[in-house]
Amino acid sequence: MPISVVIIAYDSLQHLDLAGPLEVFTGANEYLAGRGGDPAYQISVASQGAKPVRTSSGLTLVPGTDLATVRDPHTLLIPGGQGARRPDGELAAWLRRHAPAAQRVTSVCTGAFLLAEAGLLAGRRATTHWAYADALQRQFPDVLVDPEPIYVRDGRVVTSAGVTAGIDLALALVEEDIGRAAALAVARHLVVFLRRPGSQAQFSAQLRAQVAQRQPLREVQQWIAERPGADLSVDRLAARAGLSPRHFARSFTAETGVSPGQYVGRVRLEAARRGLEDTGDGIEQIARSCGYGTPEAMRRAFIRALGVSPAGYRQRFRPQPVS
């Protein structure tokens, strides 16, 4: 039996939040068909009364399914958009009635607002687009909002960050349902990575800081990112930029918004997180490769920034199957 996937459409949705996952699930079916297999997914795009909806960019979509006819979906997917931030009472009521029967309930971007309005995120850890995380927390204080990850799994509920993160979420589900080969084939077809870990930060250290205006400082930023385990002292970085240490530190801070030490700390933390998420390397090895020197130094950095030890981070945030 194919897995039933119902993608809910409503006025003022972000069409890429819908189209990205739709293409992933469709691509998985095409992958199997090319190998003589049956479809893995029965995909429906549903709206109230099967009425056309107008996206936030002005595109009109014509769903093929009336929400009133949907019965016992396996996977529900709620895209984000302006309409989700002003939840429709009737749509939220439909979710309250039908989502508990679904085996997976997922959202992309601000679709989390609709799930929260329906009471489906109460007491759960969830994420959304970084720009709306504070608003989600204020509006729904019973939700444990984490603005960092690309997507968050809490039991059968999976919420993702903005726009293209919906593709990461859908690829993760395909990998779980069909296998890595299928997900990789779909990712290659869509020319995207397979797959960014769910706990990867929405913003890299480079994006969190401003990009320096002057080329020597930009080159230093890139050099830091590529060599987190190197000697990244102010003296060494200043020499690479051709500036005195004092001038370099002032210029770097003025142009990026953070001090050299803060920037190096963020890069090293991000590199260590990736190591814990993506590899089986030991904590001591990761600490050395990311420039911490000792596991204790890395532990202190994790506790200070994330409130959890490296071992605890690996246990809690490494991608796990949806249950």
Structure at a glance:
The protein has 323 residues and is of the alpha/beta class. It has helices at residues 15-33, 82-85, 89-98, 111-117, 133-139, 165-177, 180-190, 205-208, 215-226, 234-241, 245-256, 260-278, 283-289, 295-306, 310-317, and strands spanning 3-8, 41-47, 53-54, 60-61, 65-66, 75-78, 104-107, 125-126, 144-145, 151-154, 157-160. It is elongated, with a radius of gyration of 22 Å.
Mean pLDDT: 89
Rg, Å, rounded = 22 Å
> What share of residues is helical?
40-55%
What's the arrangement of strands in the largest beta sheet? 5-2-1-6-7-11-10
Give me the count of strands: 11
Q: How is the biggest beta sheet arranged? A: 7 strands, mixed
Question: pLDDT under 50 segments (min length 5)?
Answer: 319-323
Which helices and strands appear, and what pairs or packs with what?
Elements: E1 3-8, H1 15-33, E2 41-47, E3 53-54, E4 60-61, E5 65-66, E6 75-78, H2 82-85, H3 89-98, E7 104-107, H4 111-117, E8 125-126, H5 133-139, E9 144-145, E10 151-154, E11 157-160, H6 165-177, H7 180-190, H8 205-208, H9 215-226, H10 234-241, H11 245-256, H12 260-278, H13 283-289, H14 295-306, H15 310-317
Parallel strand pairs: 1-2, 1-6, 2-5, 6-7, 7-11, 8-9
Antiparallel strand pairs: 3-4, 10-11
Helix pairs in contact: 1-6, 1-7, 6-7, 10-11
